[in-house]
Amino acid sequence: MDTFACLYIVRGEPFRPGTCLNISMPETVFGRTSAGFSPDFSFSNAFISRNHFVIRRENDAAVLYDSGSPNGTEINGQKVVPHTPYRLQTGDIIKLAKGLTVIHFSYLFGEQTLELEPLSSAMWEEPSGATTIHWEKRECVVGGKPIAMSEKEYLFLDLMYKHANQLVTYHDIKQTVWPDRPLGPGGAPDVHTDELNALIYRIRKKYKNTFLISAVRGNGYILETDAKESAK
């Protein structure tokens, strides 16, 4: 059968970041292999159920159903109701195993050469305390220490938090963070990729990897959030 959709691994053992899982069957089962059961695509994390979720082809659309897994399935930061259909859209972010497995859904086959930036081990270090963002003051408190945001840091983080756990495209980031730049090819502000990467690098270093920012090369960035972070 022809592939009609793809899942790209942001992270999820045993797959390497950037692996493309082609969806072509009427029903595709995702889960964890065990004695007597093997899903179509298997992850090794113990928090993932044997039959965790399925994607069915319904009227040429990919529809996800959580199979009643104890730890659940999240799409764009919202927990899916078990056995209830969720019609997937390009850019949807699927999370399993408390965020240890993250998958990017797409109908766009042009992304089949997609590479995802590997996360360094430093990005998994826990901050010394809770993170709080005071947007009106444009400061981030990390482990009790206030850190002032620059204009571009503020614009970038504000945009990413408004679309937390979702893919934010390079085009949208450039429009938001560099609104006064002349337009370049494609209608986006003329900002070189190196300049954008440098901003992300400064944010990661300055805030001690508090923000878990995953780069989906050729597309944009995802800001992953959890209960340890808050904003005021």
Automatic annotation (TrEMBL):
List each copy of the OmpR/PhoB-type domain by range.
121-225
CDD domains reported in the protein's UniProt record: FHA, trans_reg_C
FHA domain: which residues?
28-80
| Annotated PROSITE patterns | FHA_DOMAIN, OMPR_PHOB
Tell me the DNA-binding residue spans: 121-225
What's an example of a GO molecular-function annotation for this chain?
Answer: DNA binding
* Keyword set, alphabetical order: DNA-binding, Transcription, Transcription regulation
Could you state one GO biological process linked to this protein?
Answer: phosphorelay signal transduction system
Record-linked SMART domains: FHA (SM00240), Trans_reg_C (SM00862)
**Pfam families in UniProt:** FHA, Trans_reg_C
Q: Which SUPFAM superfamilies match?
A: C-terminal effector domain of the bipartite response regulators, SMAD/FHA domain
Looking at the keywords, is DNA-binding present? yes
Q: Is Transcription regulation one of the keywords?
A: yes
InterPro entries in the record, alphabetically? Cell_Proc_Reg/RNA_Proc, FHA_dom, OmpR/PhoB-type_DNA-bd, Sig_transdc_resp-reg_C-effctor, SMAD_FHA_dom_sf, WH-like_DNA-bd_sf
Protein name stated in the entry: FHA domain-containing protein
This chain's source organism reads Paenibacillus ginsengarvi
